[in-house]
Amino acid sequence: MQKLVVVKKMKVLVFFVAIVLAAWHCHGSDHDHDHGHTYQIFPLRMKTGHGGHYIPEVSCQSWRLGVEAHNVIDWKTVPQDCEGYIGNYMLGEQYRSDSKIVNQQAYFYAKTLNITAKTAWVFDIDETTLSNLPYYADHGFGVELYNETSFNKWVDLGEAPALPESLKLYKKLLSLGIKIVFITGRPLDQKAVTATNLKLAGYHTWEKLITKNTSEYHGKTAVTYKSTERKKLEEKGYKIIGNIGDQWSDLLGTNTGDRTFKLPDPMYYIS
Amino acid sequence: MQKLVVVKKMKVLVFFVAIVLAAWHCHGSDHDHDHGHTYQIFPLRMKTGHGGHYIPEVSCQSWRLGVEAHNVIDWKTVPQDCEGYIGNYMLGEQYRSDSKIVNQQAYFYAKTLNITAKTAWVFDIDETTLSNLPYYADHGFGVELYNETSFNKWVDLGEAPALPESLKLYKKLLSLGIKIVFITGRPLDQKAVTATNLKLAGYHTWEKLITKNTSEYHGKTAVTYKSTERKKLEEKGYKIIGNIGDQWSDLLGTNTGDRTFKLPDPMYYIS
């Protein structure tokens, strides 16, 4: 076990050296601001993959961007060729940095607003509040088809860590006096373990923890379920000023909240 | 001029070597799929910027992702620190690849649909159909504040190149029998030069080219202008099955079309 950790640490180190190298080269190649025309060099005319070589780094990054900007939708698994890329992304600096900027923007926005006793912020749970990365690291980072049985076993352990940047946002929103409402696709029979897990991970207070009534929403999409639950909240007098999730289905539909924030998640897609 | 081109080509080459190096290292560090737990290495606990070092590559990439996923909004200019990163991105392989996947997804979607004589697809123009990269390369890739006078001078030249992946989509949609409607924020007095430029760039046919009536939409946002024009289209019997643009303001609002596609653009933001 100890040896494995050392090997993985070394791998992560190699990866960072590569990133730093890339960053350094990039830095060295900053463009001059000459004011002549430079049409000749525009790679608009280049083809992806020089000399026909397939560069997974480039095309998997495009796939990931496509997912985040909601252009690539309804996918079942991460493309096989992107397993290494997505694994490195999830374990590396970039995922944390990408999460950080989203949470920062959310806070910059929240702190400008008037807060009342009924001001609410909606958090999704999986890959938003809690991280299932320990599970997905053992299951191909989304390359393997989703296995409900094995995923539920992981959830029932109740030991998912907090996403650290989301935890920071959560604490800041609480300190602004905003009420936190969790709306998760997890079913009612996982509510207790989820509550315990949230506390273990550092999320100690919330206004509501809404789990999915699987008979009420049987066959309905996450968009419908979450929209309906947000509508119920608003009917109870809450004003949803913000809504954060890792899936577009957390953020689309009706009663979405005044502003939405999309956290990165290239491992799975929920419609 | 010739020398400049060679220097820029070398810079681009250095950049690609760095990318390939990074890709190669990444590839070399693909994760094992051991089935033990590996909590110890989760960089969830790491801080952005090792040892306090600022890595523009990582944080500028996060900023760009934040822009594309509509988390970073209402910004005036590219962060100063990201000029080199954004310049390299726009001139490099990644921008082309990112554009390609969006247009591909759009085509995969379009070809599954029933097409009638009134089936329409909306294209934005700047950074969607035509590229202003030759202009922005001379103006700090978005680091400089937008200068209407100098940008209009560039537009009036009428020599913006096509975005090659968008041009491919355009041709494929035409061949499916879909009507193309351009809706641009460019004003009426640039309609003629825009039409000429479109043809020069390879866009030869369209159903409508809608420019902005600046008195009708004075003080209105792009979201309002574009929503209103799409509504007019639908009132004329068109069915908008797709809508592609580089700004979220092309895609949000009402009458957005059955599905929207967000092309990359980290150089400017239009609300």
UniProtKB/TrEMBL annotation, chains A, B:
Entry superkingdom: Eukaryota
Record keywords: Glycoprotein, Signal, Storage protein
Signal peptide positions on this chain: 1-28
Pfam families from the UniProt entry: Acid_phosphat_B
CDD domains (UniProt xref): HAD_VSP (cd07535)
Molecular function terms from GO: acid phosphatase activity; nutrient reservoir activity
GO BP field: defense response
Xref: PANTHER family: ACID PHOSPHATASE-LIKE PROTEIN, VEGETATIVE STORAGE PROTEIN 1-RELATED
Family: Belongs to the APS1/VSP family.
Name the UniProt record assigns to this protein: Acid phosphatase
Lineage of the species this protein comes from: Eukaryota, Viridiplantae, Streptophyta, Embryophyta, Tracheophyta
